[in-house]
Amino acid sequence: MQIYLDSCATTAPHPEVVKLVQEIMKDNWGNPSSLHFWGERSAMVLEKARFSVASLLNADSGDNIIFTSGGTEADNLAIFGTVYNYSQPQHIIISSVEHSAIASPVTMLEKQGWQVTRLPVNREGRVNPDDLRKSLRDNTVLVSIIYGQSEVGTIQPITELADITKTHSKALFHTDAVQIMGRYEVDVSALKIDLLSLSGHKFYGMQGAGALYIREGIELQPLIGGGGQELGLRSGTQALCAIAALGLASQLAQKDLESESLRLRELRDYFIDLVEQECPYLQLTGDRYYRLPHHASFIINHPHREITGRKMVRDLNLAGIGISAGSACSSGKSLPSPTLLAMGYSETEALRGIRISCDRTTTKEDLEWVVMVINQLMSR
């Protein structure tokens, strides 16, 4: 028996996505930039996907969507594309629980003289909007706050944070929405968001394609020079199969968003309640209610056993269960999770995080089995 519970890392492509990709590889392999029949046919596939992504976001048009290789590149384009507009270092605000695709580029800029404010979070991993208001400066040019935190699942008050940014400054507001897309309604027309990153393989698309939403009138500088594809912001021949997969995944997500989000929330809450009853040594991390619908995360605090998150991942893998650890790994060495440290956990606790994330195939029986296996492992 095998149970996959790591959809925050990646999801299996939807069967309809697999079918579409096979058809495109067979029949639509032309370069979308070519002017002949083969190129025009591929260009139609590309633009259909663009409008599908725009529709999922309720964006004004497909012109707001720039395709990238994934969420990391979209995040980097948002950050560097903004700061390259300035000849001198300015001020950036991020949260202290950003994904490394945001945290690492910002650290690079900090070493080049950029001023960086990292907003603190509470024990649940949530930013206080008042801290953002107090941190805005005259030279703040970008605020980037993750929408749904991948490690502990906490959803940030993005509506309020974006409103504060636009009301009290001229800064652009960006959000990394990689984990939330396809599972939670996002309406960029209603939100005061300038830039938003997403990735297809997180919601049953294909690895290798993501997108950056750019509000009309926002100017970014390109990171890659070349043939001028994607409005000149992302040169290089587009990965047509992966982009088409992203487009179809967006259509499928939009179709089932309400029902699937409700189903995942019910599974999540059922699992958290079950863990609280059966596994008291697993301590919930992240906000209990402002949480990604498919996400549960815990610290292992067993009174008689010291076990890291990575050890739990390896043990469950041997039992045919796939989850992930909350701690990062560098050169084979376990390191305390920066996210858990920012939330006030000790270094020892920050090595003991685990994450369980459901997908469209997960059942209550799967979750019950996982709890039973964890108890068996901990009793050995």
Explain the overall architecture.
Belongs to the class-V pyridoxal-phosphate-dependent aminotransferase family. NifS/IscS subfamily. It catalyses: (sulfur carrier)-H + L-cysteine = (sulfur carrier)-SH + L-alanine. Its EC number is 2.8.1.7. The chain is an alpha/beta fold. The chain has 2 domains: 3-9 and 257-379, Aspartate Aminotransferase, domain 1, CATH 3.90.1150; 15-253, Aspartate Aminotransferase, domain 2, CATH 3.40.640. Helices cover 39% and strands 16% of the residues. It has helices at residues 15-27, 37-57, 71-83, 100-111, 129-135, 158-168, 240-278, 309-318, 338-342, 364-379; strands spanning 3-4, 65-68, 91-95, 115-119, 140-144, 172-176, 195-199, 210-214, 282-284, 295-300, 321-322, 324-325, 328-330, 333-335, 353-357. The protein has a 7-stranded mixed sheet with strand order 2-8-7-6-5-3-4, with helices on both faces. Strands 9-10-15-12 form a 4-stranded antiparallel sheet, covered by helices on one side. A two-stranded parallel sheet has the order 1-11. α1 runs antiparallel to α7 (240-278). It starts with a strand and ends with a helix.
- The shape is globular
Q: Superfamily at the CATH H level of the largest domain?
A: Type I PLP-dependent aspartate aminotransferase-like (Major domain)
Number of domains: 2
- What fold name stands as the CATH topology of the largest domain? Aspartate Aminotransferase, domain 2
* The CATH top-level class label of the largest domain: Alpha Beta
The overall pLDDT average reads: 94
- Low-confidence sequence ranges: none
CATH architecture of the largest domain: 3-Layer(aba) Sandwich
Radius of gyration: 21 Å
The number of helical runs is 10
How far is the first residue's CA from the last residue's CA? Answer: 21 Å
Question: What composes the largest sheet?
Answer: 7 strands, mixed
How much of the sequence lies in strands comes to: 15-25%
SSE series: EHHEHEHEHEHEEEHEEHEEEEHEH
